[in-house]
Amino acid sequence: MSPRADALRSRERILEVARRHDVRALRLNDIARDAGVGIGTVYRHFPTVRALVEALSVDTLVRLGDAADRATAEPDARQAFRGFLDDALTLQLEDGGLEAVLTDMARTDPVLHDECAAARGKVFAGYDAVLSRAQRDGVVRGDVSAAQLQLLLCGVEHAVRLGVPADRDLLLDILLSGMRPDPQAAPDSPAGVAAIRRPAALG
């Protein structure tokens, strides 16, 4: 086996083992031990825990971008919006490091920065496309930005982790209910503009 092929195999082995660990408590020494490789091998591929977390999250970011594509292709805006948030929440709960990658690119490891930035850019474009369509169709209030939506979903993720996993769907329903157009909003306000459009339930 060539040195390059051997290095790729080692990298994939490290990632495979790391996926079985709690990403919020990763230690490179533990990963090296469980992967059956030297600590130097781990450091050559991932010089910091942050770099390892980001490498794990790139695949999740790609899957989240694919979820946005599916939502964009869904004919019904209500179903598209709910389905996308449901998929996004599932992925964030599966990947404990995803939130950090989504919200703090300034700390991204230089080796992975371009790959993370490209995947994250597609995700944010997907958030914007799905949300904008839902707002145009009167499904969601008009004064919420894509960045705010992403932070709200992170809040639901935290609530699920801190509480009972069985409450996941209930907490998502509460978020969706709070994003419905407000029928009492002033007609010339952003929320009011959304409210006078075609009403649609989110739940």
Automatic annotation (TrEMBL):
Pfam families per the UniProt record, alphabetical: TetR_C_43, TetR_N
Key word Transport present: no
Keyword DNA-binding included in the entry's annotation: yes
Keyword terms, alphabetized: DNA-binding, Transcription, Transcription regulation
Gene Ontology molecular function, alphabetical: DNA-binding transcription factor activity; transcription cis-regulatory region binding
Ranges for domain HTH tetR-type: 4-64
SUPFAM superfamilies: Homeodomain-like, Tetracyclin repressor-like, C-terminal domain
Protein name in the entry: Bacterial regulatory protein, tetR family
InterPro entries in alphabetical order: Homeodomain-like_sf (IPR009057), HTH-type_TetR-like_transc_reg (IPR050109), HTH_TetR (IPR001647), Tet_transcr_reg_TetR-rel_C_sf (IPR036271), TetR_SbtR-like_C (IPR049445)
Organism of this sequence: Microbacterium trichothecenolyticum (Aureobacterium trichothecenolyticum)
Portion annotated as DNA-binding: 27-46
